[in-house]
From TrEMBL:
<feature type="domain" description="HTH marR-type">
    <location>
        <begin position="18"/>
        <end position="149"/>
    </location>
</feature>
<dbReference type="InterPro" id="IPR036388">
    <property type="entry name" value="WH-like_DNA-bd_sf"/>
</dbReference>
<dbReference type="GO" id="GO:0003700">
    <property type="term" value="F:DNA-binding transcription factor activity"/>
</dbReference>
<dbReference type="InterPro" id="IPR036390">
    <property type="entry name" value="WH_DNA-bd_sf"/>
</dbReference>
<dbReference type="InterPro" id="IPR039422">
    <property type="entry name" value="MarR/SlyA-like"/>
</dbReference>
<protein>
    <recommendedName>
        <fullName>HTH marR-type domain-containing protein</fullName>
    </recommendedName>
</protein>
<dbReference type="GO" id="GO:0006950">
    <property type="term" value="P:response to stress"/>
</dbReference>
<dbReference type="Pfam" id="PF12802">
    <property type="entry name" value="MarR_2"/>
</dbReference>
<dbReference type="InterPro" id="IPR000835">
    <property type="entry name" value="HTH_MarR-typ"/>
</dbReference>
Length: 158
């Protein structure tokens, strides 16, 4: 039994939220992210650290502000992630061509860490999709992207 099972009695009545996509995604997210955190923790990573290093490795020279935007964070939330990754020797900040800008680059050690993490993430994915058929597991990322595409702003706040 995990912590989430202790927090949410089964069956629970969630009133108007019962059976909704929104609440189903939230409950799934909590369980999935906890599994990912537990998988990454022994290697000294968190999901945001992995995301930041992955984006930097795939986009050499990316500006810190662009990285923060890609992660859906403000710059103030991304800065500690970058400081941590740099302190671990996994990325480096380099002066840009105009000397005022900074570009982020994964180090050889950072790229090695990503190779080490790839099978950990694959095992996590296999675990969380084990109850799905191969067709369902393949369709789920597509459906989630259709539900909330990158360019979707959602309901604008008034």
């Amino acid at each position: 039994m995990n912590d989430l099972d202790d927090e949410i009695p089964e069956p629970a009545d969630f009133g108007p939220l019962s059976g909704t996509v929104s609440y189903g995604i939230k409950r799934a997210y909590l369980r999935v992210i906890r599994d990912l955190e537990a998988s990454l923790s022994p290697l000294g990573f968190t999901p945001p650290l992995l995301a930041a290093l992955s984006i930097v490795a795939a986009t050499p020279g990316i500006a810190p502000a662009r990285l923060a935007a890609a992660m859906g964070h403000g710059r103030s939330r991304a800065a500690p992630l970058l400081d941590h990754l740099e302190g671990q020797g996994l990325l480096e900040r380099r002066a840009g061509p105009d000397r005022r800008s900074i570009g982020l680059h994964a180090t050889a050690q950072g790229r090695t860490a990503l190779r080490r993490l790839k099978p950990v993430v694959a095992e996590h994915e296999a675990r969380i999709t084990a109850s799905l058929s191969p067709a369902e597991a393949g369709a789920l990322p597509v459906l989630l992207e259709r539900l909330a595409p990158d360019n979707w702003a959602g309901r604008e706040s008034s």
